[in-house]
Design a protein that fits this description.
By secondary structure, the chain is of the alpha+beta class. The protein is built from eight helices and eight strands; from the N terminus they run αβββαβααβαβαββαα. Strands 1-8-7-4-5-6-2-3 form an eight-stranded mixed sheet. Strand 5, helix 5 and strand 6 form a beta-alpha-beta unit. The radius of gyration is 22 Å and the shape is globular.
Length: about 270
């Protein structure tokens, strides 16, 4: 254990601590609103048609880029470095890519928003399956066999590419790499990079985008069902919680005599 002395912040009273926290919270809320505005701008990014045909090796044989969607409307592909020449081969993938893989949230929630996450590397499938079993990773993981990595900016460095499809037509909608990649892994970080976003009614999205009420679509990861209506009992719990939060917020605003308006739902 390090014995280095750190420069500690001031130790204060509970009232002073709460005041400092409220001051910082106002700045955090401002950052949240800026993030929401940026995501709204991302949903209005132009689309790039993907006309080239790509082929991957998968656990069930050859697969096209369209196959990677698994029938869903959106696809996120992360290029992980696991191949000869990468530090850790053949026992491990790149340490950074592996850390990211450990952060991946349960895929059922992402799938419930009509979105698929897939990993892709140049390692052969037997090695990928061995690695997944060792590390207890469950995401679909494909072998790149052509110029997909070079064409989408991930031949020399990791990154997430987002795609959307209309029938059999595929479009590239966004790309996150370098520092932005370190925050990926949560359901919300994935959805926020997609063309359709979180698909909730509070979001500023173009007309016609699919949107539902927040919270109501949430479910246990083993109980999602296609086309199922939200559980009425859960809606009642959620509505009661929202009402209690609004009452508490109103009382706080009334006592303070001011309000920070325009807060997003997140």
């Amino acid at each position: 254990m390090s014995t280095t002395t750190i420069e500690k912040p001031q130790v204060v009273s509970r009232e002073e601590w709460l005041a400092a926290r409220e001051n910082l919270l106002a700045k955090e809320k401002q950052l949240t609103r800026q993030r929401d505005a940026l995501a709204a701008e991302r949903r209005r990014m132009p689309w790039l048609a993907v006309d080239k045909q790509y082929e991957f090796d998968g656990p069930n044989g050859k697969a096209s880029l369209l196959d990677l969607f698994e029938g869903r409307r959106q696809l996120i592909v992360y290029r992980a470095f696991f191949e000869p020449g990468v530090f850790g081969w053949p026992d491990h993938a790149c340490r950074g890519c592996s850390l990211g893989a450990d952060q991946v949230s349960h895929l059922s929630h992402l799938n419930a928003r009509d979105t698929t996450l897939a990993y892709a590397s140049r390692a052969p499938q037997p090695d990928i399956q061995r690695l997944k079993a060792r590390m207890e990773w469950t995401m679909p993981w494909y072998t790149i066999t052509d110029s997909f990595d070079k064409d989408f900016g991930v031949d020399e460095w990791h990154g997430h590419n987002a795609f959307i499809r209309e029938g059999d037509k595929i479009f590239r909608t966004y790309f996150i790499n370098t520092r932005g990649d370190e925050a990926m892994g949560s359901l919300w970080s994935y959805l926020d990079m997609t063309a359709l976003g979180r698909q909730e009614i509070w979001e500023d999205s173009p007309a016609g985008y699919p949107q539902t009420k927040p919270y109501e679509w949430w479910n246990w990861h083993d109980e999602y069902a296609a086309e199922a209506a939200p559980d009425r009992r859960w809606i009642e719990v959620e509505e009661a919680g929202q009402a209690a939060w609004k009452d508490a917020r109103k009382n706080k605003i009334d006592s303070a005599g001011s309000c920070c308006s325009g807060e997003s739902h997140s």
